[in-house]
Amino acid sequence: MGLLPSLNPRDILPVLRNPEVFNDLNEEIYEASKSTTGIECVVGLESRGFLFGPILAQKLGVSFVPARKKGKLPGEVISQNYELEYGTDCLQIQKSSITKGQKVLIIDDLLATGGTMKAACDLVTKAQADVVLCLCVIELVGLKGKELLDKPFKSLITFD
Ligand SMILES: O=P(O)(O)OC[C@H]1O[C@H](OP(=O)(O)OP(=O)(O)O)[C@H](O)[C@@H]1O
Ligand SMILES: Nc1ncnc2[nH]cnc12
């Protein structure tokens, strides 16, 4: 059996039930992004990256771009396949959503093996944009997902 099924599922969703706590978390996310200069676009990863990405983009005054699983986005897309513990998946963004050379922050709720965030970095790079920060609310440190990334990374809450 693989490693992931034996892990506690870590769930950010209860935080959204309390507007004050959710607001505090969004402020923490914004604070964590502030030392990275020149962010021009926030890319959020389906699905829970969509809960935080648009709010951060609004606070920063920049565009929000959803990276979705294969086949969900209309129009021309850029795709990046990636390995899961069992099988493969594919992330896509709309071709017109990111411009060449743009400084991009990628946000998701959680970093586990790092495969999803790595694929998002590769996708943004494929779009000829520049990943300036990968930001996750939760990091499962024991899975060493951070080691897969060759871009700056920050998390707000860590579990072993
Ligand atoms: O670091 P990794 O091992 O790649 O795992 C992290 C990803 O897994 C979870 O998403 P999930 O695949 O469950 O998709 P969902 O948010 O659409 O439910 C989580 O929200 C991250 O996006
Ligand atoms: N929410 C989660 N908790 C634990 N491991 C995970 N791997 C991917 N998502 C996870």
UniProtKB/TrEMBL annotation:
UniProt-listed InterPro entries: PRTase-like (IPR029057), PRTase_dom (IPR000836), UPRTase/APRTase (IPR050054)
Positions of the Phosphoribosyltransferase domain: 16-155
Reaction it catalyzes: AMP + diphosphate = 5-phospho-alpha-D-ribose 1-diphosphate + adenine
GO MF annotations in UniProt: adenine binding; adenine phosphoribosyltransferase activity; AMP binding
A Pfam family reported for this protein in Swiss-Prot or TrEMBL: Pribosyltran
Family to which the UniProt record says this protein belongs: Belongs to the purine/pyrimidine phosphoribosyltransferase family.
Known role: Catalyzes a salvage reaction resulting in the formation of AMP, that is energically less costly than de novo synthesis.
Name of this protein: Adenine phosphoribosyltransferase
Species whose genome carries this gene: Elysia marginata
